[in-house]
User: Which sequence fits this backbone?
């Protein structure tokens, strides 16, 4: 394997957290490892709702923190909630100064949407459903103009190099052709900001290449993983047969859109006092139940928005148009889809993992903010807050370097790409057995299938990363014998009494459980 040593800080990923961290590290030289061209393939760019922040004079960070803790079903770290929500306003102002065209009123105030489980309209948006894309565009423009930032596009991280518990580098391959021989990039510090795990499921809203690989490579290197079992399913992905499924932003329900079934019956009013604006886990389970009953759930925007949806929510309108749906005159079919991983690589309040030299921000991390059920639009906020925290931590701990030569990569032939059929089998296994509803039999079946897939296709490091993350999710779900937030065990429908506990696990423990299940009589 070719080894290259650089003085640049390595950032794995190219979403909002990665780009913002790179800018906050400037002028410290960094190199971004991005599988796609900047702006393409990152979940951040697909985010429709916006960034949650108490910007209104009648709102407050304390109220935002309380909503976060309440939605998280007992496993949110209150200190982290206070940290993130208390700082939210400064990030909106910073993004505005960078050129993000947030929606504004005639008086110059920010236009804000109300989303599920928020007690106030506090989601700052862009053109209705364009927040992620527009924030990313502003950040990318800044990154392109910053001399200290080098972006290696078309390159994918597949492994971490460690030495006595310290991360010393990242193993990469050409993203467009995983048959390329791996190269190890050694650096003074590594920041993982490479997204979540929704793509491990057959029905997901996540970009195609994001399948839990970053969490998996950290787990394989020995990092502790927290809250792996908590996967959030977005209730209103469009059920139109696309992979990934287009998203019908929660802001539509904030505008007053309702959920109905094929018979025209509104079903959320009988389930929760907040009806369509109930916490995401509640709405997702209701959608799932309607689907399982053959009642075809749909999002009805006709009365509240009519033709205006096409102007106010262009991403939704475009997805409807290419699937032959006119949302002004007909409801939009929806399904619950894997959307956000509350769990991930365990970090402290400084963004550091349990491995020296390794920081994490964004969806790949588990900071304690999201608990068992992420509050809507807190994901982008957390990515921004911890991107800055990680950048400051790296600058404090790593020797200052003013200049560094660009990293030059030349990939030779070699390496093994993930088998496409094996990846699809893994995704279907997770949807069938580790989805919106779970039980011991299904979770054990998933662990057995994952063991078989890994044994048959373990020559691909990227696939091993997927298997590692999927195994952590399934093992965590099997061990949590209760229902809490997004984790619904139909064989343990009640929530355990007493103080809630976050889960902490290493991959070796999850593998031991998997081996034990495989040895049991089926």
Assistant:
């Amino acid at each position: 394997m070719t080894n290259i040593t650089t003085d640049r800080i390595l950032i794995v990923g190219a979403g909002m957290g990665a780009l913002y961290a790179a800018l906050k590290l400037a002028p410290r030289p960094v190199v971004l490892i991005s599988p796609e061209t900047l702006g393409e393939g990152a979940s951040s760019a697909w985010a429709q709702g916006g960034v949650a922040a108490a910007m209104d004079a009648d709102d407050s960070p304390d109220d935002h923190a309380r909503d976060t803790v309440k939605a998280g079903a007992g496993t949110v770290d209150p200190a982290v909630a206070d940290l993130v929500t208390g700082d939210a306003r400064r990030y909106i102002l910073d993004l505005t100064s960078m050129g993000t065209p947030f929606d504004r009123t005639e008086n110059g105030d920010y236009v804000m949407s109300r989303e599920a489980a928020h007690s106030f309209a506090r989601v700052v948006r862009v053109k209705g459903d364009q927040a992620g894309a527009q924030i990313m565009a502003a950040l990318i423009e800044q990154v392109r103009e910053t001399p200290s930032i080098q972006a290696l596009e078309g390159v994918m991280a597949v492994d971490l190099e460690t030495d006595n518990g310290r991360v010393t580098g990242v193993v990469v391959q050409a993203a467009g052709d995983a048959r390329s021989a791996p190269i190890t990039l050694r650096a003074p510090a590594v920041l993982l900001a490479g997204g979540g795990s929704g793509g491990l499921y057959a029905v997901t809203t996540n970009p195609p290449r994001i399948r839990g690989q970053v969490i998996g490579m950290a787990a394989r290197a020995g990092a502790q993983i927290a809250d792996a079992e908590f996967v959030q399913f977005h209730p209103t992905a469009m059920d139109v047969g696309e992979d990934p499924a287009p998203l019908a932003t929660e802001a539509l329900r904030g505008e007053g859109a309702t959920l109905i079934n094929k018979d025209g019956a509104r079903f959320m009013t009988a389930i929760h006092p907040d009806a369509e604006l109930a916490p995401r886990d509640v709405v997702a389970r209701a959608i799932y139940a309607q689907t399982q009953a053959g009642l075809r759930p749909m999002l009805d925007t006709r009365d509240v928005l009519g033709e205006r949806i096409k102007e106010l929510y262009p991403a939704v309108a475009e997805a409807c148009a290419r699937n032959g749906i006119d949302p002004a005159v007909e409801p939009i079919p929806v399904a619950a889809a894997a959307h956000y991983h509350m769990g991930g690589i365990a970090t402290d309040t400084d963004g550091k993992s349990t491995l020296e030299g390794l920081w994490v921000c964004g969806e790949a991390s588990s900071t304690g903010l999201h608990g068992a059920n992420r509050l809507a639009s807190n994901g982008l906020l957390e990515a921004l807050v911890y991107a800055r925290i990680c950048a400051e931590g790296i600058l404090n701990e790593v020797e200052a370097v003013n200049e560094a030569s660009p990293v030059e990569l030349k990939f030779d032939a070699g390496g093994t790409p993930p088998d496409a059929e094996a990846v699809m089998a893994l995704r279907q296994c997770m949807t069938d057995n580790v989805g919106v509803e779970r039980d011991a039999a299904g979770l054990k079946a998933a662990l057995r299938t994952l063991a078989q897939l890994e044994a048959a296709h373990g020559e691909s490091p990227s696939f091993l990363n997927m298997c590692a993350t999927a195994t952590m999710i399934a093992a965590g779900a099997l061990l949590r014998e209760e229902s809490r937030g997004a984790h619904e065990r139909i064989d343990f429908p009640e929530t355990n009494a007493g103080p809630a506990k976050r889960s902490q696990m290493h991959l070796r423990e999850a593998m031991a459980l998997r081996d034990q299940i495989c040895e049991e009589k089926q």
